[in-house]
Amino acid sequence: MMLAGCGVVLGAVALTSAGSWLVLRGGRGDVGDGKRHVVLPTPRRSVIRLVVFVAAVLAWSALVARDYAALAGVIKSALGLLMVASGLSLARADAYLAHTNPLLLLLEDGSLVALVVARRHTLRSLLRSLLVLAVFLVGAPLVVVAADVVAGWLGVPAAIVFYLGELVSLAAGFLALLVLVFLTVALPRRYDARSGVHPLASSLLLVGILALMLVLAGALARGIGASLSTVSPPDGLLVFLTLPSLVMLTSAVLLLARPKDRPGVGDPAEPIDVIMPAFNEQAGIGATLEALDRAAAAYPGRVRVLVADDGSSDATAAVIEEAARRAQAAEIVALLGPHGGKSFALNRALEAAQTRIVVRVDADILVDARCLRPLPHWFANPAIGCIGAFDLPNFSLPAWYTKGRLFECLMTFGFSRLAFERLDANNVPGTFMAFRRKEALALGGFVEGMNGEDSDLTFNLGKLGLRSVIDPRIVIYEDVPQTLGAFIEQRTRWSRASFHVGARHLPWQGRELHPRMLIQLRFLFNKLTSMIRPVTYVSSALFFLLIPRVESSPLRTLVLLALTLAPQLVLIVAASLYWGFWRELRHLWVWVPFSIARKLGLISGILSLPPLGSVEHRGPARREEVATSASAR
Description:
Elements: H1 2-24, H2 47-66, H3 68-85, H4 90-98, H5 103-118, H6 123-154, H7 158-184, H8 200-227, H9 238-257, E1 272-278, H10 285-297, E2 303-310, H11 316-326, E3 331-337, H12 342-352, E4 357-361, E5 366-367, H13 375-378, E6 384-393, H14 400-420, E7 432-436, H15 437-442, H16 453-463, E8 467-478, H17 484-505, H18 515-546, H19 553-578, H20 591-608, H21 622-632
Parallel strand pairs: 1-2, 1-4, 2-3, 6-8
Antiparallel strand pairs: 4-7, 5-8, 6-7
Helix pairs in contact: 1-6, 1-7, 2-5, 2-18, 3-4, 3-6, 4-7, 5-6, 5-7, 6-7, 7-8, 8-9, 9-14, 9-19, 10-11, 14-19, 16-17, 17-18, 17-20, 18-19, 18-20
């Protein structure tokens, strides 16, 4: 029996190791050069596929709520047989099963199946998807049993097995989602350049913090479950829903306990080049350039703005010329060229820049007049490679999405990003990004052909050992989509960017173990929670409505919903008060619909990833361009 138990444990380890290897080895389907050029099939966003996914999730949630006892009984029976076959006594197996709740596992099954059903497929990607699903349906219970077997060997009390099983189920679902995506869709291949940075202390500290968060989440979940008497179906979501509270607590500890990077003493009049991509931006680029001119007037050194017009078909070029004539402090230069994409335009401007400090600014933002003044002092610190701003929405935009984005910015730029930068586990968005020109060019500039070129450069700078920070004194006001369709389209790109950057930069070797790379796992984990969290809302409501006969189920459901919303609301209120936006709290009601829209966009991003085996590629001349570029080097 002991031998059988060892076999189960080794099988679980082999499955998780194989899944991790498939993810960490990088993307597939990219015929680019592994550095600047990524060549992938064109992504396609589909509202119909998003509707199919949501409908499938709702149908599965209703089925689980209605037939939970039967479905849970089947899974528990299978787990019990495996436990006994693995060497656990019947009494210990029964004790563990009494504290086992398969609800999270069931919901993960439904989410993954719904993803496969809703996604676009080639025959190759479909066969691989079905294989991954089959392995998960068998492997996830095996991994849970392996955890129980090890717990039995160590004499772990049965009560602890409750949250141990939930953590294992959550980890198995997370890995299954990543394998499903990385094995079946076309993603950028790994970035070829290696730098050999060894920040092991910070990396191991971050790993320890994440592990501690999971343990504390389980302990908190178990404590809540125990305070509500016996285990009921909704308890299977407790570990998952307590994680936001632990993330917030951990961020607060980092913010208070770890010192912030400090600027040095630089030349306050050091010249600065600003680069800006522009494609059909006639509506807003004039205001952006006027704001940059005011910032140049407030800066004692020379400021040159290089605007790379990416083959605009509207009056963008004329607006740039008019802004150049009217500018009083900044030198505005238009770089006209054919349409090649945002990164293509950025690289044209970057190669035309001449200063040590370069600031990348998007064409639809407004900068504060003092945004350039801190930069020379920051870059006087040789450890700093990238500076980001405190992003806020453009308050002149009237739709309620603007209010929702304000609360999101306060939680991220006003709290979590400031916390994670203490471990250099931060990336800087491209709305406003100041960086070292020479180092950026040595890394290949901005990657072309994928989403997330801003994060990609931040990660590359991290491989040189250069840190990234957010300076709250640098304030910018960004554009916010004003319709649901435009908002979901934006979040689709952001979601897709996480997988693109993850495929390029997840740590494959020990020397790549950097907090900034590890934190990419957090972004990908958010995509998993984006798939499951809406399911938890629906399932909790259905349990509340359909099976109130279960002891304490309604009360537990209300506790679950409170645990989900309370941490975010507390953080929003605290950040709003701290940063002086307390008047905006009257719009707090928008957070729930805003969060739902965000989740839809995140799911849409996963669904938009092109399947592996697609023959069409973005840009018919891109392969020749890659070959020419490689020959030139």
